[in-house]
């Protein structure tokens, strides 16, 4: 035996073993050691008696620590401002450095912020907003009505990935400005004086005020070009901030650092002096949290706290106490191409809806981070009718098999093999999809494979299926998360006001399902003013049609889970009317301005 | 002189000499190589596991779906136990997060890994050997064109190329096979060409040409059989590489589509993310990948030693 060869073989074997294991570690760089930041510039009177104040003179609670620094994990994205991109943006910043017209409270109701008051005309088509005259950008320039006119003209540009969201406000001439058919000055957003602006709409839009929670103001005096691609915010000289914090430093690949904005005069004065947004692979975040390198982890979409972390937390009382869990207004559902075989047959869709045991999913692969869904509108959402609809698609394997047989596929015989498409699935979602495939196989005899696609490919295929009214993309799993808290939002995914003479592919909604009655109910409710009870009733009628016609098979509503260190305190932890405690940045905003660090 | 001649031609002397051929010699050398035998046992065991995971070979005659033989459950069967159970008496390798028996999934995974590796190498053989033979036999412009193409291909990192092909084709069993075949015929092509270049100048080839043998006869009668040894070694050593490549592709999520199990996919999806608590999810598939690669590498090495005595004598 050749000695050298033997060594080489042994080395290959070892290497294989190590590689197989190391494949694991891929993309999991060790967290950068935390440099101790000196953030006590202003908090000098530490030893003296009397109230402790932070670097910008905000009085802190008696138990506050001398160093007000919070460290949070994040993934790095490309752009640096909301008006450049919403899907590829370092939005760790948005809520800290940007500021919006109104702010939702813990019951999701809009409260004054930059806009201190507003009124709507009797016909419901004109909104007038009055602004806080004391508010300035971090360079001292006032935040004016002109900034808001510019902001909306800027959002109404064709290459903006969140343009579709603002289009839901029905602002006059929106579509024409986006397509360039009319000049931006024609947009229905006008300045009345320096601190008053109006928005006119095409039709009454009662939920417009809720969209104003995402009216993140853009500094016209800095950006100037309405069509700028967003590069303006890469220049540190140009960056100005309206919110409670301002960017101090952006270390590419390492972290973003924010400090309290001393020019801020709004209602959310920060107690924290400094925020460290550390770029970190999701897989290492929980370990970093346990090591004390982070002050919180989680609150995202089930990647920071994988099942192993959840099991570890459940087994450890100390960790369990640090956990906060709250339901997200979001629905994962299966949709079909209901315009083509085999899913044009209602019985086939019903069979599938009855063959999926949601309880097994939410107690199995999705344990602790989901609740079973039988409706599009999640519990607690305006217009939701969870109790009234929960039996329509209840799990019933015998009924499912019977329905499939009546549809002409006894025991799945002759039924085409299906591909269940998923969109950028995280591991637990793929597990759930696999469990669904197994249930369809067991209960209906249908063979299902799962194919995951990236966001762009998936959405392109989904659109193409509708435009062509044909194709292979006929069975897929996708989430929809609320944009604003109004009954029109999630149901709008399935329809809305029909344009006269529209062809099927041009019908409102993103899916290959159509129901005229549903659309007229949604359209009526969407422009109904001053009668919320009636609106809720209309939305409930519409959702019943959607669920009974099995346009979709709702699977689960995610529950968000976060771990927060016990020394993080503040008004953030008070609950709303629902009694649920959250650790949510999304649509609450200013979370970092509503917490402080207590002495350990 | 005469005595020597007599010894050489005398009939009894032949009895004392063992019957020798290249293959017989190789088999003898191989069987003396303990490590190679260990590898062979590993490979055979894995092949048995892969083939007899379920009774696919008789199921069609019984008119039913295949039922598990070595595996305890079908790989798709969910919630047969609690989710994430640790290894124990009932579930030898624990259960995964869907409550599936991990042992069964590992067993079915062997079928995927081995079949992809072996078939992709056979496919590579079918591309690489004719291309190499063509280049080596024809020479000149044909050789130049083929070899420049091979140069370009070998300049690309294999895994990256396979990854890009998978992105283009989309994840599926057959596409993984294609991608791995496309990326692994290069070496076979080079080996075949160099063998042909060397052999076609040899005296026995000249001799057969001089008695009027045509090209096909020379190629299939002389060149190919004499090139076989290095080709076999290369294919055998290509198998562990292919297993690893498949695992890597599935790990990255562009390999085998779920719910079909693959070891790489098992590690990549749930294994790693949950290693801190559910350690069994990554450990067992990793051990299987390592054992399989080890087995084939040992066999390949043994074959090389056995078929190429010059290397051993060095």
Can you characterise this structure?
- The complex is a heterodimer of chains A (600) and B (314).
- Chain A is of the alpha+beta class and 600 residues long.
- Chain A is 29% helix and 18% strand.
- Chain A contains 19 helices and 22 strands.
- In chain A, α18 packs antiparallel against α19 (532-548).
- Chain A is globular, with a radius of gyration of 26 Å.
- The termini of chain A are far apart.
- The relative contact order of chain A is 0.14.
- Helix content of chain B is 72%, strand content 0%.
- Chain B contains 14 helices and no strands.
- In chain B, α4 (34-51) crosses α6 (102-138), α7 packs across α9 and α11 (215-251) runs parallel beside α12 (263-271).
- The radius of gyration of chain B is 24 Å and the shape is elongated.
- The two termini of chain B are 34 Å apart.
- The chains are: A alpha+beta (600), B mainly alpha (314).
- The interface between A and B is large, with 50 and 52 residues.
Give the topology, please.
The complex is a heterodimer of chains A (600) and B (314).
Chain A: H1 3-25, E1 52-53, E2 59-60, E3 69-74, H2 94-97, E4 102-104, E5 110-112, E6 115-120, E7 126-131, H3 145-155, H4 163-167, H5 174-179, E8 189-193, E9 196-200, H6 208-211, H7 220-223, E10 245-251, E11 255-260, E12 274-279, H8 282-290, E13 296-298, H9 307-314, H10 317-321, E14 323-327, E15 330-336, H11 346-355, H12 358-363, E16 370-372, H13 386-389, H14 397-406, E17 418-423, H15 427-444, E18 448-453, H16 455-468, E19 475-481, H17 488-491, H18 516-526, H19 532-548, E20 552-564, E21 568-569, E22 596-597
Helix pairs in contact in A: 11-14, 18-19
Chain B: H1 2-9, H2 11-16, H3 22-32, H4 34-51, H5 59-62, H6 102-138, H7 140-155, H8 158-169, H9 173-199, H10 203-210, H11 215-251, H12 263-271, H13 280-307, H14 309-313
Helix pairs in contact in B: 3-13, 4-6, 4-13, 6-7, 6-9, 6-11, 7-9, 8-9, 9-11, 10-11, 11-12, 11-13, 12-13
